[in-house]
Amino acid sequence: MRHTSITALMGLLLCCLISITSAIASANTALANAQLNKTKAEPASVETKKMVVDYKYVDPLQRDTPRGALRGFTAAAAYDIDYIKAAQYLDVRYLPDTMNAKNAAVYAEQLQAILDRNIWINLEEISDDPNGNTNDNLPTYRELFGTIEIQGEKISLVLQKVPSGKSGSVWKVSNTTVAKIPQLYSDLGYGPLPEWFIEHTPEGRFFKLNIWEWALLSSYLIVAFIIVLPITWLTKWLVLRSKFTVKNEIAKWISRPLRVFLALSVNQAWLANTELTARASELMENGVLLILSIMWLVWSLISVFQSMLREHLLKKGNKQGASLLRPLVNFVRVIVFILAILIWLESLGFNASAILAGMGIGGIAIALASKQSIENLIGTMTLYSAAPIRVGNLCQFGSMRGTVEEIGLRCTRIRTLDRTVIHVPNAKLAEMEIENISEREKIRFKTDIRLPYSTNTTQLKAIIADIKALLENHEDVLESPLRVTFKGFGLHGLEINVFAYVGTQSFPTYQAVAEELQLRIMEIVEEHGSKIIPVQPYVQPAG
């Protein structure tokens, strides 16, 4: 049974994965079609994508093409941290009087900081042709590689083909762009705190982020936890001293998911007002950790509410409602998980509407793969709405008798009289004839007494009267219906029928009362000079 449930769950997850994949594919197809339509409307952009592949560079610094020049500058400034080499990619001729060509390494460092702070450069979109992009409405000796906006003014960052003694001509960052570097760095550079980390941390990168950025992010997170820790600890202490019935669950929620959520929220607020590189900013804006913490927060909060509602329902004696909480909470958690995934995909730039539309396509596959699961879910709804059984009921299920321990979303757990556990699918259980033994308000006491034919009328009447008086005077036997009658002349003797109800729902209590009544009936029969005879098999007379 457990293997079947795991298989069904894996099948359902696989179908969900297929549907989400098809949804993302649909969204990407729609995006591709939109881009294709845009390309058709702007023929000039087609030429922009035409590039020379695997160009054989002649210049040692690969400055033969715009792409080679930018790749070389990025490798030198961002990864090798060699600003002297990076300076060779700058055109430092004809600079303003306030600038000096000897400071080219400083300008290279500042330019890399500006690029890191504000834009990403996709080298695949930069021309790898020595002549550059001839359809960008710029002079043939110039190539645009980025645009920065400051106070509504767009500033273009361009490369320029300049003379070179060895290679004839090479591509460098134009002198007009270099002339703007000091002012751009002043306006768009890092603040005092990032500057401090830049000065006091080793140079280099790790996973495409500067080491100083990793140090800054880690410091922010540590300080956020230091601030949040005493607040959550004090709140937890106050909760544990309270009289809440579920104070332990609330304390765990405060000390774990709430603490992480508050720390990440404080950290996110600080980062929003801190100068970081474009790559680090994009990483932080994805909000993966924050979304995960919110999901953990809501997930645990649902458990707290489940405990509170369960305690409330049990106090009112509503065991059925308490047992219903678990499948309902699991259903709510699935909805929360799906919503969290959709919100995260939306934050990454995907169209959630297109994903939901794509999930409609995968819904057919899910319905086919989870046919039995859907049937069991409908069976669960039937069991809860009609309520033929409840948790704790002793019932007869066909040839099986046992106590209901749990009514789940897929199956019902039954504890048999032999103390074994049986899981019955709810779809099958909803179609079975169920005898709910626990719902009887009283238990029938019925027996037939057989006396020998030697018993006379006086004895028979006295026995019937005394047995009836016994039942009427017993405190556990109900007054009505109550019958003690001479049934007739049976094949094996005189038959007396005894019928009454014991006013209890407890079977052990009934057994004790029935034992007492039967022993007293035997004494009454003996007191009147008769005896109880067993049923004897009928023998056909010979001849």
From TrEMBL:
Signal peptide feature range: 1-27
InterPro entries assigned to the protein according to its UniProt record, in alphabetical order: LSM_dom_sf, MS_channel_1st, MS_channel_C, MscS_beta-dom_sf, MscS_channel_2nd, MscS_channel_C_sf, MscS_channel_CS, MscS_channel_TM-2
Task: Spell out the protein name for this chain.
Answer: Mechanosensitive ion channel family protein
Q: Which residues form the Mechanosensitive ion channel transmembrane helices 2/3 domain?
A: 331-371
Q: Which organism is it from?
A: Colwellia asteriadis
Q: Which UniProt keywords apply?
A: Cell membrane, Membrane, Signal, Transmembrane, Transmembrane helix
Where does this protein reside within or beyond the cell?
Answer: Cell membrane
**Topology in the lipid bilayer:** Multi-pass membrane protein
Looking at the UniProt entry, the stretches that span the membrane are: 211-233, 283-304, 324-344, 350-369
